[in-house]
Amino acid sequence: MVTLHNRIRAGGFVESEGNSFYSRDQITIAGGAGVLFPGTVLGKITSSGKYTISPKTGSDGSQIAVAILWDYADATDGDVIAAAVSRAAEVRADDLTFDPSVALLSDQEAKHTQLRAAGIIVRF
Fold first, then answer.
1. pTM as predicted
2. What range defines the domain where residue 107 resides?
3. Which tens digits make up the pLDDT trace of 9-27?
């Protein structure tokens, strides 16, 4: 059986953001991260400065949610440049995509708290 996913458009998860693209940055998604969709919660790998999907736990820095991917990105075969919301924004909780390790509601709430520290407010 084929699983269908209803994906949102680029930036469709944003409720509000700063003027003149203040909320967005150009980032590098680390190769091997796979196919990522708009609204994917990202962490930054400390040693490389590249971003990847933010897991529940880890030790490379990516376990701390600091940004949300703006549009579709395919980093399966190598690094890719992408846009991300990284500050001064409000986003819809229902439109966020998390790493599979962030499965419980309490895990997602922890990611919301991490995003708040980056200036991104998650709204319900």
1. 0.93
2. 24-123
3. 899 999 999 998 899 999 9
